[in-house]
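Each lists chain and fold; for instance:
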Amino acid sequence: MRFAKKIYVSDGLAGRERELRVRLKLRKLKKHVYIIYFNRYSNTPEFMNSIFLKQKYYKNYSMYVIGIVETYEQAVEYIAGLLKDAFGKNGNFNVKEIVCRC
């Protein structure tokens, strides 16, 4: 699991970035935490509930984390904001140029 240099963290989780990174690597987050990551196969930002990290598939799946939020709505709003910023900057929805070098 890799992390962006500066990951987005919702207000309710602010100040706990280091703890959240460690817990993510150990795959021990609570079910009310959503992970926003960049899918390198589809070149799109995606999110999922952290409870899914307990599945065997994610032990071998390399994930590039760009954000951690508390609710589904916050995850949707953050990704919508990324798409809006990408379109305003590039004239297309290529978020990869904005969020990562993966």
Observations:
- Residues 2-99 form one domain.
- The mean pLDDT is 86.
- The chain has one domain: 2-99.
